[in-house]
Amino acid sequence: MVKKYVFGDPIDTGAVIGDISPCTEELCLLTQEKDEEGRLRFLLSLDDSDIVYGLGEAPRGINKRGHIYESFNSDDPYHTEEKRSLYGSHNFLIISGKSCFGLFVDTGASVTFDIGYTDYDRLVICPSENDLVIYTIEGESPLDIVKQLRKITGSSYIAPRWAFGFQQSRWSYFTADDVRRVAEGYRKNDIPLDAVYLDIDYMEGYKDFTVSEERFPEFKSFVSEMRDMGIRLVPIIDAGVKIEDGYDIYEEGKEKGFFCRRKDGSFFAAGVWPGRTHFPDFLDPEAREWFGSKYKVLLDAGIEGFWNDMNEPAMFYTDEGISEAAEYLKSFDFSCNDPNKFFELSGTAGGLNNRRKDYAAIYHNIKGRSVCHSRVHNLYGFNMTRAASEAFEKLSPDRRVLIFSRSSYIGMHRFGGIWTGDNQSWWSHILLNIKMMPSLNMCGFLYSGADIGGFGTNCTRDLLLRWLAFGIFTPLMRDHSAFGTRAQECYSFGDTAAFKGLISLRYRLIPYLYSEYMKACLHDDMMIKPLGFEFSDDEMARRTEDQLLIGESIMVAPIYEQNAAGRYVYLPEDMRLIIFKNASVERSELLSKGIHYLHAALDEVPVFIRKGKLLPLFRAVQCTDELDTSEPELLSYNSEPCSYLLYEDDGISKAADLPENYRTLSI
Amino acid sequence: MVKKYVFGDPIDTGAVIGDISPCTEELCLLTQEKDEEGRLRFLLSLDDSDIVYGLGEAPRGINKRGHIYESFNSDDPYHTEEKRSLYGSHNFLIISGKSCFGLFVDTGASVTFDIGYTDYDRLVICPSENDLVIYTIEGESPLDIVKQLRKITGSSYIAPRWAFGFQQSRWSYFTADDVRRVAEGYRKNDIPLDAVYLDIDYMEGYKDFTVSEERFPEFKSFVSEMRDMGIRLVPIIDAGVKIEDGYDIYEEGKEKGFFCRRKDGSFFAAGVWPGRTHFPDFLDPEAREWFGSKYKVLLDAGIEGFWNDMNEPAMFYTDEGISEAAEYLKSFDFSCNDPNKFFELSGTAGGLNNRRKDYAAIYHNIKGRSVCHSRVHNLYGFNMTRAASEAFEKLSPDRRVLIFSRSSYIGMHRFGGIWTGDNQSWWSHILLNIKMMPSLNMCGFLYSGADIGGFGTNCTRDLLLRWLAFGIFTPLMRDHSAFGTRAQECYSFGDTAAFKGLISLRYRLIPYLYSEYMKACLHDDMMIKPLGFEFSDDEMARRTEDQLLIGESIMVAPIYEQNAAGRYVYLPEDMRLIIFKNASVERSELLSKGIHYLHAALDEVPVFIRKGKLLPLFRAVQCTDELDTSEPELLSYNSEPCSYLLYEDDGISKAADLPENYRTLSI
C-alpha cells in the first residue's frame, strides 16, 4: 500500500505519474523532527536483522547499511568507497528484515541518507529543503514493494533488441577510419559486435547535433556502410550548447529563451568540452520539446541510438568561478612560506569544476516561475533524456530508439536507460557493477550496465575477460575506455579466442536475456535480483552480495579477483553448474544447496541453472540482425519435464504485451 | 644459492651486508637486453602456474601478477588499485611455480616491474639506470629464498615488547590535555593501551626535536605522568629541517654542510609542514650521525619510541616549482575559453608537490661525490631511519628503542620497522593490509602494521571493529586517523564492550605474538606467511590471498566486508576454529580440511589452531607492563600431547637468542 505525505510546497519532480491523494494522517513509519536550523529530518530505528536495499546508482553494497549517501548528481569519476554521490539520484529505500516497507523521498533537491553510518542502528534522512513528498510503500516482500513503486512511477523504458548486442566504445574514435578499424577488428576476429560509439570527438567543435565533415565525411553513407556490416553507430549528446555565433542551436535557444539563466535573467554560462556553453532548460516543457526535436538530424542520418552525457550538468568552469580564481591568484603571495596557502592555491585552481555555488546560481523556468537549480538539481539529466525520449515518440513513432543517460532520477526510467558513468579499470569495480545492477533494477532502471573493462586507468587482459564474463548478463554490454588509456577493444590483447568465446556466448543468450528483460519491462518486475529477493528466509542468501539472479532461470557468481582460479559460491537451492567455454557447454555438474568453490578459467563462464527452470541457448551469430531463435538448445537442472516461456518480438517495433509474443519451450 | 651480478658502476645501497663476489658468468635466470634508448631490461617468461611473490609495500595481491609497479618512494595517500608506487621500494621478487627463485634488484634509483601487465606471461624489469646489482637466489622453497635474502641483507630490527601493546594515534592530539583525554578514555573504559602518538603538532612550529612549550608544558614530567599510567608517548620526526634563523638544528646543519644541495652547491629547499626546509643528507654518514644525535633530547625526556615521517622525502613545493607556477599563472589568460587550458591550470597549481623534476634537482654527498638524488631516491627514508637507529646504539646501548618509518628500502629492515602509510577508512584497505603483511615479512620488515581504521576519510564503528580484529595479529597495532576525519579512538563509537574485548584479546595473545615475532627476527624467518609458503602443493592454499599464517600455531581469516555475517574460509588441513568474544573462548569447533563458511559477529575474533600446535593465552591486562606469563591457558587442536616453545625476554634489553629465553609449554 502506497501512502503519500506532502511536506511544504514541493516542486513536482515528474517521478510519479497519476494522482495520488496525500495522506492527512501523520507519517507513522518514520519519526519526524526538525533540527536546530528548522530542517526536517526523518528517523528510523533499524533492527539487527534489517537489510536496507535501494538507492539505485550508489557506491558500496546491495545492503546500503553502514554508510552515508547524498543524493546529488555528481560528475566524479573516482568511485572509491567513501564517496557519497554518483551521477544519479534514486531516493528509494527498502527496509527488509524485522519490518518490510519502502520509502521514496521525492524531491529534486539533495537529500542525505545516513544509513547506520553515524549510528549503525539508525537511519536518518535529511532533505536539504523542507518541500518534498515522501511515499511509504508497505508490501509483503521487497519485490512487491519494487512493483508498487513501479506502478506509481510508471513502467520502464524499453530498448531495442539490438542494444543487447555487444557494443564497443572509446573516448574517442576520432575518425570514420578509426571506427572502420574497430568494426574490422571485430569482424576479422569473428567477435560479434552490434554497435560502435561515437564519443565527443565526432562533433564539429563539440557542438551538439553536428558531425565533423572533415573526420566523418558523408556521415549518412558512413552510417549506412556500418549498418551493412550489422553495426550501429551511437553518438553522444552533451547537455551544454556551445556559445558560438551562427551555430543554429545556440542562436535558436538564445532567441527563444530556452537556456537556463542567472538570477538577473541573463543566460547562465559554463565551460564544458566546447568551451563556454549554455544549458538548455530541460525543466521547461517547451525547451525540452525544442531540444528533443534536434535529435532528428541524426535520426535522419540513420542513427538509431544515443547516449546523453555531462547532464548532471557537469561544469568545468564558470565565468564567476574564473573571475574569483583570477582575483585570488592575482593577489596570491608566491613568496609566502605557508603550506596551507599552497594547499588553498591548488584547491582554488583545481576546484573550478562542479562548484555547488555555481549550481546555486542557475535558474530554471518552471511554469513561469524562476526556480533555483539547487531545488531541482537532480532532475536535470532526467529531463534531458525525457526531451530526447518524448521527441522520439514523434520522430520515430513506430521504432524504438536506444537512449541512455549518465545523470538520472527516478522517473527517468520511463524515458531511457542509464550507464553507471566513468568507472575505473579496477577489479573492485567489477564488484561494484555486480552490486549496483539489482539496485538499479529496484528503481526501474532495467536497461543498464557499466563501462566494461573500466573507463579510466589501464585495463589488463584478465580484467577485461572477467568483467566481460559478468557483462554477458547485463542488458547494456559495452566496453568503454578513456582517452589516454591502454587500448581496450577485445582484439587489443593478443589472442582473441577467449574474447570470441565470451561474446559469442552473450549472443547465444540474447534471446533469453531479452525475454527476461522484456518481461521485467512489461510486468513492472526486476530482471536482475539479489538472492535475498527470492530466498528471503535464507540468511546466507540474504547476506550474499556478489551473486545475482538473472531472470527466472539462472544465477551467476562472477569472478572479480585477479589471479583467482575461481571463487566461493553459495547455492540457496540445488542447481546445475554449467561452465561455458568457446560459447559451448564445457562441463556441467549438479550441485547441492550450500557452499562450493567454483573453478573457472579466464575463458570460462559459469552459470547456475535453477531447479525446474530452463535456459534456452541459440545459435551464435555476429550481430543481433542474424539472431535465429528457431532451434534452441535447452539446458536444464535435470531431465525432468519443465518449460520456459520465451518472449519474442521483432525487437524494434514499439513493444506490447501480446500473447503471440510468447512461446513455450519445453523438455 | 645467491649470485650477484653487477651492471655498470652501481652506488652501494647499503642493502646487502658483507662481501659477495660478483658472478663473472652471464645472468642466466633472466634474459637481458637493451631497449632503443640503450636502457637495460630483464625479461622472464612466466608459466601459468607461477605465482610472483614480493615487492613488500605495494598495492594489490600477495601474488603480484597482472600489474605494473614502479619502485619510487611516493607520498601518495590514495592507495587505489592502479597505483604503481607507495612509500617504500622493496625490489625483491620470488617466482614460485614451475621454477622457484628470487630476484633482488639492488639500486636506489627507480625500477619498473611489469609483472604480466603488458603480457600476462612475461615479467619485464626496467631499471631507470644501467648501474645496478641483481642478486638471484635459488632455493628449495619461497621461505628458503626469503631466508637467504635475509642472510645477505641482515637480520631484522627488533622492537621492544611494549610496542606490541595497542597504540592510539591521531593527526593530531594538539595538547597534553588532548593526550590525557585519550589516556583516560582508554583507562576509564578498561580498554588496554600502551602508547599515544604525537603527530606534527606537538612541535614548536613543526621544528624537529622541539616540543611546544605552550601546548606540552613541562614535557618531561608529562612523559613521566603518562608512563605512570603505563602509556608511552611516541613523537613523530619529519625529514625536513625548518629554515629559521636561530633554530639550532638548522644553524648547525647549515654550518656543517649537512643538508642536500642543488647542483650549484646551494642548499636545496622545499616546503613541507614547517614551510621551507632543508633536507639532511642522510646518505652522508657524518650527516646521519649528526641528525641521529638529535634524538637525544627526546630520549632524555623519557621518550622510548619514534616514527620517522615525510622521508620519501615528501615536498609540498619548491622555490623552483613556485616560480614556474607563478610565471605560468601570471601569464594565464583567464579570458580563454579552452577547457584544456583550465585543466592545465589546475594541474599546474595542484602539481607543486613531489615533482620528479624537483627530486632530480637534489644532490647528495656520497663519499665526496655529488650524486643526483634520482639515483638514490629510494634510499632516503632508509638512511633517515638508519641515522636514528645508529644513534640509538650509542644513546641507548642497553635498551631497545621503537623506531619505524614511512619511507623505506630493503636494508632498512635492519634499522627499524615501517607502517604502511596514509591509507583510507576503506574496507578494501583491510584487505590490502592483509595482503601486504606477508609481502613485508618476505622483505625483512617484521615490525609493521597499517593505520587501523584507516587514516584518511571517515571510519565507522563496524569498520574499526573488523580492522582491529585483524590488527590483533600484526606486530604494530595502531589506530591512526587524519585531521578533519571522524574521531576514531575505540571509545568514540558509543558502546565500548566490543572494543575492550578485541583489544584485551590482543593482550592475551601478546606473549605468543611476541614470541613468534622474536623467533622470526632471531632466525631470519617470517612471522606472517601466505598459506602457499607452508602448503605449496595445495593449489587452493597457494591461491588464497585473504588468509594468513601467524606464527607456527594459528591461521587467521579476517572478515573485511561490511554487513557480512562472516566469510568463506579454506582450511589446508584440519584445524580447530576458536571464536573469541570478550577475550575468551566463546565457542570452538573442529573443522576438516576444505571449504567452510565462518560466522563471526563484530565483537568476535575467529582463530584457527593448527593440528599438533598449541596457542598459549595469558591474562588480559591494561598494558604490557602488567603482562604476566606465569599461567598460560593452552588451546590446541585436540587433546593429544603437543608443545609450544615460548620465547620470552624482558622485552627491552637488546635481544639475544639465549637458551634461557625459551620455555616449553605442553599439554
Tell me the distance between the termini of chain A: 40 Å
Catalogue the unreliable spans of chain A. Answer: none
Kindly state the mean pLDDT of chain A as a whole number? 97
* Strand element count of chain A: 39
State the largest interface: A-B, 68 and 68 residues
Number of helical segments of chain A? 14
Q: What does this entry show, briefly?
A:
By secondary structure, chain A is α+β, with helices and mostly antiparallel strands.
Descriptive account of the structure:
By secondary structure, chain A is of the alpha+beta class. In chain A, helix 5 (285-293) packs across helix 10. The model of chain A has no long low-confidence stretch (mean pLDDT 97). Chains A and B meet through helix 7, helix 8, helix 12 and strand 34 of A and helix 7, helix 8, helix 12, helix 14 and strand 34 of B.
What key attributes describe this structure?
homodimer; 667 residues; alpha+beta; 9-stranded parallel beta sheet
Describe the secondary structure blueprint for this structure:
The structure is a homodimer of 667-residue chains.
Chain A (H helix, E strand, L loop, with lengths): L1 E6 L23 E4 L5 E6 L5 E4 L12 E5 L16 E2 L2 E5 L3 E7 L4 E5 L6 E6 L4 E7 L3 H12 L12 E3 L7 H13 L6 E4 L20 H10 L3 E7 L2 E2 L5 H9 L12 E4 L2 E4 L6 H9 L2 H5 L4 E5 L7 E2 H12 L8 H12 L5 H4 L3 E4 L2 E4 L7 H16 L6 E4 L2 E2 L7 E3 L7 H16 L5 E2 L1 E2 L8 H11 L5 E3 L17 H26 L5 E3 L8 H4 L5 E3 L3 E3 L9 E6 L3 E7 L2 E8 L2 E6 L4 E7 L3 E4 L15 E4 L6 E5 L14 E5 L1
Parallel strand pairs in A: 6-23, 12-13, 12-27, 13-14, 14-18, 18-22, 22-24, 24-25, 26-27
Antiparallel strand pairs in A: 1-11, 2-3, 3-10, 4-7, 5-9, 7-8, 8-11, 9-10, 15-17, 16-17, 16-19, 20-21, 28-29, 29-30, 30-35, 31-34, 32-33, 32-35, 36-37, 38-39
Helix pairs in contact in A: 5-10
